[in-house]
Specification:
The chain is of the alpha+beta class and 407 residues long. It has 2 domains: 106 residues, 60s Ribosomal Protein L30, Chain: A (2-Layer Sandwich), CATH 3.30.1330.90; 268 residues, no CATH class. It is built from 16 helices and 7 strands. The strands form 2 sheets. A 5-stranded mixed β-sheet has the order 3-2-4-5-6. It has a two-stranded antiparallel sheet with strand order 1-7. A hairpin with a 2-residue loop joins strand 5 and strand 6. It binds iron/sulfur cluster. Iron/sulfur cluster (SF4) binds next to helix 14.
Length: 407
């Protein structure tokens, strides 16, 4: 498996595969193919169908302002190497001088046809949780120690840096008021959730309100195209920070302890993207929100000092009950149902850890089994439920907005 550093990317929302990935693709084109006087890019598959709402054209034009962006809504996915495919063309004196096919494969990662990927360096020989478990048992390591043993020495610095960016997203999101951009006229709710303490509020209600406020804060920043950390994607970027921010400010965990949790979350995200997918366009929302919930549950279980068996149980519970979750963003915007879903998943991560304390000895299903099941379920899912905005809520909840592009 690759470094966990590539699970956590910093970028502008609203979508890791539809804005962070295409932004990196445009940078790649500018760097390696500078020599042309005209450019075109065809956004195909899910990028063609939901790229406008996700701001894909704006992300690419930030780097290549003069490029012509064409939303291809006709090429069927069966004819594409990946549901998020971009075909970049360059011309000089009216003649085509290059064609580069780039796939945005989830979490901001790219796969570039006929081009070696520097992210492809393997740092972990293990590819399954079972192998990691055995290694840790044999060497008396916990999961964070396992990560630090395999990664470069700068990983701790990187994790602290990502954690600072996550905290900034929570804190900035909690300050904001008003309506989110895009035309759905959706009010921001994080600030209201944070401040709206109910009379005689129980500790359970306070926990639910605060964790939700933190998740909404980050997800709303993402929807506003502000800077977030993929965890593992932009659409699901509020889940892990919400759980960790709550752990710091309401449970007293230190930044060092939280960065250990982040290492564990990165390891679990790494397992999922290696053995399945973190792309909504490939496997539905189970791959985004389900993965984020699993990462957050494992992180918290580790921070709370649970043994490996219980960490695995918490991760299993977190992912198992998101199996089959479809991706159906209304109007192609990462707002409905995405923002609320981040809060639901953050609360579920905490509940998964609590359940794991009591029931881990009865576990029948392994984390590797659930990850494989998630992948197979995603492949079996009909195309319209995988980030096309042609199925589910996006199909039944119709709202007439004249301008989702905000240009
Ligand atoms: S529904 Fe889930 S997978 Fe789809 S855009 Fe929203 S958060 Fe991402």
């Amino acid at each position: 498996m690759k470094s966990i550093g590539t699970v956590f990317k910093v970028g502008n929302g609203p979508s890791s595969s539809h804005s962070v990935g295409p932004y990196s693709a445009a940078k790649f084109m500018r760097k390696y193919y500078p020599d042309c006087d005209e450019r075109k890019v065809y956004l195909r598959g899910s990028l063609g169908l939901t790229g406008k709402g996700h701001g894909t054209d704006r992300s690419i034009k930030t780097i290549l302002p003069d490029i012509e962006v064409i939303f291809d809504m006709d090429t069927p996915e069966s004819e594409l190497p990946h549901p998020n495919t971009m075909d970049f063309y360059g011309y000089k004196d009216g003649k085509e001088v290059h064609h580069v096919r780039i796939m945005s494969i989830g979490g901001g990662q790219l796969s570039i046809e006929d081009h070696p990927n520097k992210e492809a360096i393997e740092v972990y020989p293990q590819k399954s949780f079972a192998e990691i478990y055995d290694y840790c048992q044999e060497h008396y390591l916990n999961l964070a120690q396992f990560v630090f043993e395999h990664e470069d020495e700068d990983i701790n610095y990187k994790l602290h840096s990502r954690w600072r960016t996550m905290q900034a997203a929570v804190e900035e999101g909690l300050q904001q008021k008003g309506v989110l951009p895009g035309g759905l006229e959706l009010e921001r709710k994080a600030r209201h959730l944070f401040n709206n303490v109910s009379h005689n509020e129980s500790s359970e209600t306070a926990m639910a309100r605060l964790v939700s406020a933190y998740a909404f804060a980050v997800a709303e920043q993402n929807a506003s195209e502000e800077v977030v950390v993929t965890a593992p994607t932009c659409g699901s970027c509020g889940v892990l920070p919400a759980v960790l921010y709550y752990a710091k400010h309401n449970k007293g965990f230190t930044d060092d302890e939280i960065c250990e949790g982040l290492a564990v979350a990165g390891l679990i995200g790494n397992l999922i993207r290696t053995n399945a997918s973190v792309s909504g366009a490939e496997c539905g929302c189970q791959a985004e929100i389900g993965s984020a919930c699993t990462m957050a549950a494992a992180a918290l279980a580790h921070m709370e000092g649970l043994p490996l068996d219980q960490i695995e149980y918490a991760a299993v519970v977190a992912l198992q009950h998101f199996l089959g979750l479809t991706c159906d963003p209304v109007n192609g915007l990462v707002q409905i149902p995405c923002i609320e879903r981040n809060a639901v998943a953050a609360l579920r991560a905490i509940n998964s850890v609590n359940l794991a304390r009591f029931l881990h000895a009865t576990r029948r299903i392994s984390l590797d089994n659930v990850i494989e099941t998630m992948y197979q379920t995603g492949l079996d899912m009909k195309e319209q439920y995988k980030e096309t905005s042609n199925g589910g809520l996006a199909n039944l909840y119709k709202i007439d907005i004249s301008d989702v592009s905000r240009e």
